[in-house]
Write a structure and sequence with these properties.
The complex is a heterodimer of chains A (about 450) and B (about 300). Chain A has about 450 residues and is an alpha/beta fold. In chain A, about 55% of the residues lie in helices and about 10% in strands. Chain A has 20 helices and eight strands. Chain A has an eight-stranded mixed sheet with strand order 3-2-4-1-5-6-7-8, with helices on both faces. Chain B has two domains: about 80 residues, Four Helix Bundle (Hemerythrin (Met), subunit A); about 190 residues, 3-Layer(aba) Sandwich (Rossmann fold). Chain B has twelve helices and eight strands. Chain B has an eight-stranded mixed sheet with strand order 3-2-4-1-5-6-7-8, sandwiched between helices. In chain B, α3 runs antiparallel to α4. Classes of the chains: A alpha/beta (about 450), B alpha/beta (about 300). The interface between A and B is large, with 62 and 61 residues.
Chain lengths: ~450, ~300
């Protein structure tokens, strides 16, 4: 849906005659659209205003170059500012005497317990010796949940049920972790509202005795305008050191990330992207910025593909994409592989251009659309797949008939495919990806 | 960064209360409308609904010749209230056994809401049973069982990672044979974009219908009150998968205003039945549209 930003900008600029420079008036019109899009993505109002002021300052008077038309120019600036606002990929600060302590804090239901376990697994894979402490004595069975997860990933843990005060649990847990020669201790705390004074005081007490190297605020990617108040509240009272954005595998556009980053200034360190315990990704600002702008996320797709297919295949695919040697045959093969990756709609969104084919349709329709595309490609000869230019009117009619579709469907696929190739070429040359069908 | 912080501080302090202030003291000008627009946005009302609302109030101001600020405020409240209807009573009577099916994304507060709901309905003279249909999340069953104990309501559970459809089937049989008049079915949290998990939900729903004809009688979507515009996407997807009949909005004891409720009701006609306002067993209230609209203008939370 965020693709509408680039579409909207194009509409604004379509109304302007060709010219060499962006005037203040042009930019103002564009900025109104950017503002709407940011607000629709749940970026906080004030943060959006600030952001727009920065973009505007850069955009007024910016040269419209040969490579970029005004809409692209503005999108480029928005994209760059988004990356700048989202900040550097944050690394965990784990230097210093062992064991280092990481405190997980956040609202109820943001995903602290699951993320604590994911983080433990992530750290163990980096040859650290993680240790978990169950200090949520409030939510029924929260301790059981952490213990179950710890057992699943074979990470040692400390729990004392729910009758001991959380700071005491942490004190004992730290001693146990030292005795067990752990290198990193992750403390799971109860969810709480940032305005709950006694609960926040409890976190401060845990912080005082555990001297954590990291206090990570775990926040739901779907959070709305409230995000700034949550982030500000936790930061003011605890001086958080990083953000973890959860449930990023949904269709939330993640504007909360911008808001929280802007108001706290602390880096986003991880994204939680699924229910499995290995679904924790190091944060890449460029990718999230692209996602927020609806530019597709080819890098994440390639990464996901790498996890599922053997590395050589994925590399070949990537090389082909970037060198623009990507044929309809590859496209079909890729689609077949993609099907093995999971929910199709989610993946289609990652392929620049293809997402647009299935814009505004639900998942089952997306599946149907997928089948249709496959049928069309299947009805082509091998030569046609390698070189779609061969497809003249009569060949197109044959393909349409063979696949039970119409010539318009065939044309649409071919057009989409051409646009996709163009985009691959742009990425290959390290330029701003051109969104198909938007900059006409 | 410092100025941004201050700005937010200011925004928060004044928040919706500022509308009252603005409208009470100054003349209506463009700033007034910007202010109203901004404050609606910050309550998560959403861009589309906000633009529509402001448009309506504007035209009323000129049509009805409103000059006084208090009149404008009243008009805004009326327009907001006009976007909601009083929720119909829950469809839970007139048969031997009624079923409430609870769905929602991860962490929205399904299990907690079920605990409170069971307690509330039991106190209202019902004889509820709970089905632990979340067999996926670690310790979800234990969590629900503890809520069952608190509420004094029996919980039917299977083994972790067992087929939720089978657990729900057993629970429906048990509820009927033991003479319960209400069954509340918990399900695992799932993101609405996960096709397979949504299909699973559709299947669980049809399993209920096999044991008890016409069930579930209410399918309630539990929405996190701090969620922004994504709530609408959640509502659309869940409604399509399991024909949601209403919503529960949780965590409204926070400073979040839950403004996405307007768009959801406008687009999908999903009435909100309950709101969650805390972690205690009595912290589940009936949704009252008048109070809800008023609360948007409160400086502080709802509680």
């Amino acid at each position: 849906m965020f693709e509408s930003l680039t579409e909207r900008l194009q509409e604004v600029f379509d109304q302007l005659a060709g010219r060499g420079k962006l005037t203040e008036d042009d930019v103002d019109k564009a900025m109104r659209e950017v503002r709407m899009a940011l607000l629709e993505a749940d970026v906080n109002l004030k943060v959006a205003k600030d952001f727009i002021a920065r973009v505007k300052a850069r955009a007024v008077g910016a040269e419209v170059t040969k490579n970029l038309n005004p809409a692209q120019q503005v999108v480029k600036i928005v994209h760059e500012e988004l990356i700048a606002t989202l900040g550097e990929a944050g690394r965990l600060n784990l230097s210093g005497p062992s064991p280092r302590v990481i405190m997980m804090v956040g609202l109820q239901g943001s995903g602290k317990t699951t993320t604590a376990a994911k983080l433990a697994l992530h750290l163990r894979r980096q040859n650290k010796r993680p240790y978990l402490i169950a200090a949520d004595t409030y939510r029924p069975a929260a301790v059981d949940q952490l213990v179950t997860l710890a057992k699943q990933i074979s990470v040692p843990y400390w729990e004392e049920g729910i009758t001991v005060a959380p700071p005491e649990i942490v004190r004992h847990g730290l001693q146990a972790a030292r005795d067990a020669d752990a290198s990193v201790v992750i403390v799971d705390t109860a969810g709480r509202l940032q305005i709950d004074e006694s609960m926040m005081a409890e976190l401060a007490a845990i912080k005082a005795l555990a001297d954590p190297a990291e206090i990570l605020l775990v926040a739901d990617a779907m959070t709305g305008q409230e995000a700034v108040r949550i982030a500000e509240g936790f930061d003011t009272q605890l001086d958080i050191t990083g953000l973890v954005l959860t449930k990023v595998d949904g269709d939330a556009r993640g504007g909360a990330a911008i808001s929280m980053r802007a108001v706290t200034g602390v880096p986003i360190k991880f994204l939680a992207t699924g229910e499995k315990l290995d679904a924790l990704e190091v944060f890449h600002p460029d990718r999230l910025a692209s996602r927020i702008l609806g530019m597709g996320d080819i890098l994440s797709l390639i990464e996901k593909a790498e996890q599922t297919f053997d590395a050589r295949e994925a590399e070949k695919l990537q090389r082909k994409m970037l060198r623009n040697e990507f044929t309809l045959e590859d496209f079909r093969q890729q689609m077949q592989q993609v099907k093995r990756l999971g929910p199709i709609g989610q993946l289609l969104d990652m392929i620049p251009g293809v997402g647009r084919l299935t814009k505004d349709v639900d998942m089952s329709e997306a599946e149907l659309q997928f089948k249709k595309i496959e049928a069309i490609i299947n009805s082509m000869t091998a030569r046609e797949r390698r070189d779609p230019r061969l497809l003249n009117a009569s060949r197109k009619r044959r393909v349409a008939q063979g696949s039970g579709t119409t010539v318009q469907d065939v044309n649409m696929l071919l057009k989409q495919f051409r646009q996709m190739q163009n985009m691959m070429q742009q990425i290959g040359k390290g330029r701003l990806p051109k969104i198909p069908g938007m900059f006409g | 960064m410092e100025s941004l912080r201050k700005g937010l501080q200011r925004t928060r302090q004044s928040f919706f209360g500022r509308i009252a202030q603005t409208l009470g003291t100054t003349e209506i000008d463009e700033d007034t409308w910007d202010e109203i627009e901004g404050l609606l946005i910050q309550a998560d009302v959403g861009v589309d609904t906000t633009v529509k609302l402001v448009g309506r109030v504007r035209s009323r101001v000129s049509r009805e010749g409103l000059i006084k600020q208090a009149q404008v405020q009243r008009a805004l409240k009326e327009e907001l209230r006009g976007l909601l209807d009083d929720p119909p009573p829950l469809n839970l009577s007139g048969r031997d056994l009624s079923v409430i099916f609870i769905v929602g994304v991860n962490g929205s507060g399904k299990t907690t809401s079920i605990g409170k709901m069971a307690y509330r309905l039991k106190n209202a003279g019902r004889n509820p049973m709970i089905a632990a249909g979340d067999t996926f999340r670690a310790a979800a069953i234990e969590q629900l069982q503890l809520w069952g104990e608190r509420a004094g309501v029996p919980v039917v559970a299977g083994l972790p990672n067992s087929d939720p459809g089978a657990v729900v089937y057993d629970a429906a049989q048990a509820a009927r044979s033991r003479g319960h008049d209400l069954l509340i079915v918990d399900t695992a949290g799932r993101l609405h974009t996960k096709f397979n998990l949504m299909q699973e939900l559709t299947k669980i729903r049809s399993v209920i219908g096999k044991v008890i004809p016409d069930a579930p009688h209410e399918t309630l979507l539990v929405l996190d009150g701090t969620t922004g515009q994504n709530a609408l996407s959640q509502a659309r997807h869940f409604q399509e998968a399991v024909n949601v009949t209403g919503a529960v909005v949780t965590k409204l004891d926070s400073t979040a205003k839950g403004g996405m409720v307007f768009a959801i009701y406008q687009e999908l006609k999903l009435p909100v039945h309950y709101i969650g306002v805390g972690e205690g067993i009595t912290d589940l209230l009936f949704f009252n549209p008048d109070q809800f609209v008023d609360s948007l203008f409160d400086e502080n939370g709802r509680s």
